[in-house]
C-alpha cells in the first residue's frame, strides 16, 4: 500500500495488527490510531469472510466463528471507534457486507451475520446522527481478488461460476468496490446515512445461483381435506 502513495503526497500508511474478534486488540487499534495520527475520521469494516457449507452440516463452532468474525467484529470496531474519537468529533463509516436480499444459500451463516450488520447500520445511523456520524454499507457482488480466489480454490472456480449470474457478464474489481466506499466516506455523500450500495453488476436483481432438485415435498393447501379432518370426532382428554 505504501508503494502506491504518489511522490510528494503527505499520506502515510501504518499497519497495526488486530484480530477484530478480540475486544482488547480492537480497543488498542482505535486508541493507537488516535494517539499516532491525532484523529480517526473514517472507519471501513472490511475484515470478514466465511466458508461454504449447507446449514444442515454446520457445527455450532463453525457458525460461531463466522458470526464472531463478521457481526461481533464489526460491532467491536464500531463501538471502539465511537469511544476513541467519533462520539466527540463525528466521522463516516462504511461496512462491507454481502448481497443478502434473497438470502445466500450455501453461505447462510455469513448472510445472517451481514444482515445483522445491515440492520445495525440503520440503528446507528439514527443513534449516532447527533454525534455527526454517518454509517453506510457496501454490498459487493462477485469481486475477483487473488486472496479471495485462494480462499475458495478447494470448491472450484467460484469467480468463473459467478459470471453467468451477473448481468454485467464479468466479475467486479476491488477498485470498483473502493470507488463506492470512497464516495460514501466523502462529502459528496454528506446526506446519505443508513444506506447500502450494491456493487454487483446487477447480480442481486437476477438469479440465485442455487439449484433446487425436482421434488413434490410441498403439498398444496387442501381446504376440503382440512374440513374433513376437523369434522372427525376428537379424542376426549
Ligand atoms: C453457493 C456457493 C458459495 C461459495 C462461496 C462464494 C462466496 C463469494 C462471495 C464472497 C466472497 C468473500 O467473502 S471473499 C473473502 C475471502 N476470505 C474469507 O472468506 C476468509 C475465510 N476465513 C475466515 O474468515 C475464518 O477462517 C473463518 C471462516 C471465520 C473461521 O474462523 P476461525 O479461523 O476461527 O475458525 P477455524 O478454527 O478455522 O474453524 C472453526 C470451525 O469452523 C468450521 N470451518 C472452518 N472452515 C471450514 C471449512 N472450510 N469448511 C467447513 N467448515 C469449516 C469448522 O467447524 C471449524 O471447526 P473445527 O472443525 O473444529 O476445525
Ligand atoms: N471478493 C468478493 O467477491 C466478496 C467479498 N466480500 C467481502 O469483502 C471483504 C473483503 O474480502 P476480499 O478482499 O475479497 O477477501 P480477503 O480474504 O482478501 O479479505 C478478507 C480480509 O478480512 C481479514 N480478516 C478476516 N478475519 C479477520 C479477523 N478476525 N480480524 C481481522 N481481520 C480479519 C483478512 O485478514 P488476513 O488477511 O490477515 O487474514 C483479510 O484481509 C470481506 O468482508 C468479504 O467477505 C463480500 C462479497 C463478495
Automatic annotation (TrEMBL):
Assembly information from the UniProt record: Interacts with PEX5, probably required to target it into peroxisomes.
Pathway in which this enzyme or protein is active: Lipid metabolism
Recorded superkingdom: Eukaryota
Organism, scientific name: Branchiostoma lanceolatum
Reaction equation(s) it catalyzes: (2E)-hexenoyl-CoA + NADPH + H(+) = hexanoyl-CoA + NADP(+); (2E)-decenoyl-CoA + NADPH + H(+) = decanoyl-CoA + NADP(+); a (2E)-enoyl-CoA + NADPH + H(+) = a 2,3-saturated acyl-CoA + NADP(+); (2E)-tetradecenoyl-CoA + NADPH + H(+) = tetradecanoyl-CoA + NADP(+)
InterPro entries reported in the protein's UniProt record: NAD(P)-bd_dom_sf, Peroxisomal_t2-enoyl-CoA_red, SDR_fam
Role of this protein: Participates in chain elongation of fatty acids. Catalyzes the reduction of trans-2-enoyl-CoAs of varying chain lengths from 6:1 to 16:1, having maximum activity with 10:1 CoA. Has no 2,4-dienoyl-CoA reductase activity.
Cited Pfam families: adh_short_C2
GO cellular component, one term: peroxisome
Predominant cellular place of this UniProt entry's protein: other
Keywords: Fatty acid biosynthesis, Fatty acid metabolism, Lipid biosynthesis, Lipid metabolism, NADP, Oxidoreductase, Peroxisome, Phosphoprotein
Protein location: Peroxisome
GO molecular function, one term: trans-2-enoyl-CoA reductase (NADPH) activity
Name of this chain's protein: Peroxisomal trans-2-enoyl-CoA reductase
Top EC category: oxidoreductase
One Gene Ontology biological process: fatty acid biosynthetic process
EC number: 1.3.1.38
Amino acid at each position: 500500500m505504501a508503494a502506491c502513495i504518489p511522490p510528494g503526497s503527505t499520506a502515510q500508511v501504518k499497519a497495526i495488527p488486530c484480530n477484530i474478534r478480540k475486544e482488547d486488540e480492537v480497543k488498542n487499534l482505535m486508541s493507537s490510531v488516535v494517539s499516532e495520527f491525532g484523529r480517526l475520521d473514517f472507519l471501513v469494516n472490511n475484515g470478514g469472510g466465511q466458508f461454504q457449507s449447507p446449514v444442515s452440516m454446520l457445527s455450532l463452532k463453525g457458525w460461531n466463528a463466522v458470526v464472531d468474525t463478521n457481526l461481533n467484529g464489526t460491532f467491536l470496531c464500531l463501538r471502539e471507534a465511537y469511544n476513541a474519537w467519533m462520539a466527540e468529533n463525528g466521522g463516516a463509516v462504511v461496512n462491507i457486507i454481502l448481497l443478502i436480499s434473497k438470502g445466500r444459500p450455501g453461505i447462510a451463516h455469513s448472510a445472517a451475520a451481514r444482515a445483522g450488520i445491515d440492520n445495525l447500520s440503520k440503528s446507528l445511523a439514527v443513534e449516532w446522527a447527533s454525534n455527526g456520524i454517518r454509517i453506510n454499507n457496501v454490498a459487493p457482488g462477485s469481486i475477483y481478488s487473488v486472496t479471495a480466489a485462494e480462499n475458495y480454490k478447494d470448491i472450484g472456480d467460484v469467480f468463473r461460476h459467478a459470471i453467468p449470474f451477473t448481468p454485467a457478464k464479468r466479475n467486479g474489481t476491488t477498485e470498483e468496490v473502493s470507488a463506492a466506499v470512497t464516495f460514501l466516506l466523502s462529502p459528496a455523500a454528506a446526506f446519505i446515512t443508513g444506506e447500502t450500495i450494491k456493487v454487483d453488476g446487477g447480480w442481486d436483481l437476477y438469479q440465485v445461483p442455487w439449484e433446487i432438485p425436482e421434488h413434490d415435498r410441498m403439498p398444496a393447501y387442501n381446504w376440503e381435506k382440512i374440513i374433513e379432518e376437523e369434522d372427525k370426532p376428537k379424542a376426549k382428554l
